[in-house]
Each structure stands twice: as C-alpha cells, then as structure tokens.
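Writing this down once: the sequence line spells out the residues, with the fold written below as integer tokens. This is how one looks:
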Amino acid sequence: MFKFGFAESANDTVEEDSEQKDRLEWISAFKLEITTEQIGAKYETDYYTETKVFPGYNLKLIRSDKITQNLTDQNCKIIVEAESKHSDLIPAKYEGGLKIWECTFDLGQYILEKEIELKDKLVMDLGCGAGLIGLLSLRKSSIVHFQDYNAEVLKFVTIPNVILNFDDHMTTLTKCEFYAGDWSSFATLLDESKKYDYIFTSETIYNPNNHKKLYEIFKSKLKPDGAVFVAGKTYYFGVGGGMRQFENLILKDGFFNSELVWRSQDGVNREILKLTRKS
C-alpha cells in the first residue's frame, strides 16, 4: 500500500519543495496508440476483480497489486522507486495512478444521482488512473479521452480495464483516446478545435504547484456550454493542496462560475466543484 510522504518539519517542507520544483523535469505529453496485442489481450480471472463500483454498475478492474509486482519484476524505475519509498507520489515521476482514490467514487455516484446526460458527449477523464469515470461514461455512450501522467498506468491498467468491460473491443476503442504526460504540454498537444462537453477530474488538486496547469486545460479545452467537475479533498495534509486553494485561483481569474455541488464531512472532508463558463 502506497501513501503520501511527510516531511520532518514545515521548514524542511518549504526548502525541499522549492529545491525540488527547480529541478523537476516533467514528462512531455503524447498520445498512446493502441496495439493489436492490447486489443486481443486475454486476462486470467485472478488478474482482475469484478465488483459493484457504482450503484448498478459492476466493473472488472485490473488488480493493482498484480501490476505493481509485474512492473517491479520488469524493473520499471518509477514503480521500483515508489515501492522503495512506500509512496504514492514522486513529483514529475509517479503520480499515484495505480491506486483508486476515494473521491473518484464520490464523483461517479454524483454523476449517476444527478443523471448527467452523457450520451454522444465528448468527455475527458483527466488524471484518470484506473479510468473509472471514463468507464462509466463509456457505459453511458460517451466518447472518452483518458489522460494520466504515467504511460505505464494507461498501458497496464486503464486500457486493460476498457478491454475487460466491453465485449466489442474494436468498436469501443474507436470511442477512446489515451494521453500521457504533463498537463502543461497536454494542453498544447491537443488540436485547438478539440473541445469537451465534460471534463471530469478527481484527486488532482493535491499539488498546488500544478493548479495552474490543471486550470489552463479547463480554460482552453472546455466547450462554451460545457462543465468541469472537480472532486477532491478540502485539504491534503502533507502535500499542501486543497479545494479552497484551487477555488481561490478560479475566483481570482474570473473566467468560470464556481459552484460547490456536493460535500461530505464524514471522515476526511471531500467536495465536488462544478465549473461553467461565465456568459
């Protein structure tokens, strides 16, 4: 089990964050092409679990422990380092995509409860990890673009999850695109005319150094009548980000209307923020 690392003191955190930010080299964004091997892949039943992820939606999901072990055996550097540090987060190297974070379940249930119409909509599952929100959107007849920082997550988890949950692999994959890499270059990688009806993102606001990158994708890639839904914790202890800090960026810029549409105070406070363009 991975976890976020904590610094020894506040002063150490500030100094380390400043030094780390200066030397980070983020992976440039790129599009993954689906191979014939991936399309035809078969998975043994012990390689995945089938569970009711959302009310009325059973999903088959690749087991993260299997993938972690396989990637470790293959000497995948980012996973070996994450395992050695017992950490879900190594900035600019590994961004936690092998774990499903709890706000993803909040967001999926919210989409179903509010009966958000997704049929024939162009959806982005941003920071997708296992791709649960994208899978739900595909089930509701959307066209879905999955994005995660680590290509390894997309190749060995996200794409297999799509394959596992749809019998007609070829037809389903024509409705999907997969992108890896940093958000700043991702915004410029996409065709300028490509805009999304919905951008869904969960647990992506933990690092305040990445808030502006995330926000710029919303500004540049959302259709005029589209909506962004951001699910996250009110505050991320140990890493510094949180919903209020991200919301302050939005309010200061003034481009979007911002509405808190859901909140849970059970345990760690969690929220869902809805953004729409100002007219």
Summary: The first strand starts at residue 30 and ends at 32. The CA atoms of residues 15 and 21 lie 10 Å apart. Strands lie at 30-32, 48-54, 57-62, 122-126, 143-148, 176-180, 196-202, 222-233, 256-264, 270-277.
